[in-house]
Write a structure and sequence with these properties.
With about 230 residues, the protein is α/β, with parallel strands linked by helices. Helices cover about 45% and strands about 15% of the residues. It is built from seven helices and five strands, in the order H-H-E-H-E-H-E-H-H-E-E-H. The model has no long low-confidence stretch (mean pLDDT about 95).
């Protein structure tokens, strides 16, 4: 959900007002995804690197995340959305934010129409480090033979091992980077870059990305059979 700060600055607003404007973009994207029958949607809300931002902005983002969950979780629940979080729990994330996250997961855990994964205090490298620690613990406890460590064993230690790898990654705001996002899971994802700044993003932009995806040919490292 990139481009909030630039969107705000272009209109002479504070950066944080760009994040606030991103809420409508997020909910229009969620609605559009529900209409299309998309079962899994993951959004990058706060990265492990975002702690380096000015304290004011970090504080705003924590409060905003908490407020957004309080304001919108019933609505998401009514629409059959299951909310889950990927990232490091704890650390510098305030306890009250963690509680709202846990409550939202609990409230929506039986929903199956769509799973909305919110990557929060998330970093792709941190996730791989945490997975390596999990494997090391299993080896130390005698539960795992190091020779048996394979891709499936590592994938079982990711934050949300049951979430399928993304078919499509959409990055907004004209940046052409992965920025430490889902490094393992994006191995064979199709990438789509949009010039639109996140607060202006609407379901039509998602549909455009999906139309582009539908023209791609996915081979997963193999060759065409015909
Ligand atoms: C990046 O824009 C955006 C963020 C760091 C936060 C995005 C978060 C939301 C829209 C709220 C979502 C919350 C939940 C709980 C789903 P930027 O500040 O990097 O923009 P810039 O690149 O223009 O500076």
């Amino acid at each position: 959900m990139d481009g909030n700060g630039r969107w705000a600055q272009r209109q002479g607003l504070k950066r944080t007002e760009g994040h606030a404007a991103g809420e409508e973009a997020l909910f229009d994207t969620v609605d559009g995804s529900l209409d299309l029958g998309i079962g899994w949607l993951t959004v990058y809300a706060f990265s492990t690197e975002n702690w380096r931002r000015p304290l004011d902005e970090v504080r705003f983002l924590m409060n905003f995340n908490e407020g957004l969950l309080l304001r919108r979780r019933d609505e998401l629940n009514d629409r059959g959305v299951r909310i889950r979080f990927a990232g490091r729990r704890g650390g510098r994330v305030p306890g009250r934010v963690l509680r709202r996250m846990e409550e939202s997961e609990e409230l929506t855990r039986h929903n199956r129409k769509m799973t909305l994964v919110v990557a929060f205090n998330y970093g792709g490298r941190a996730e791989l480090v945490d997975a390596a620690r999990g494997l090391a613990r299993d080896v130390a406890a005698g539960r795992l033979d190091p020779e048996k460590i394979d891709e499936r064993a590592l994938a079982r230690h990711l934050y949300l091992p049951d979430v399928p790898d993304p078919d499509l990654l959409v990055r907004t705001s004209g940046e052409y980077r992965i920025s430490n996002y889902l490094l393992w899971q994006l191995a064979y994802s199709e990438l789509y870059f949009s010039e639109v700044l996140w607060p202006d993003f609407r379901r039509e932009h998602l549909f455009e990305a999906i139309r582009s995806y539908q023209k791609r040919e996915r081979r997963f490292g193999a060759v065409d059979s015909d």
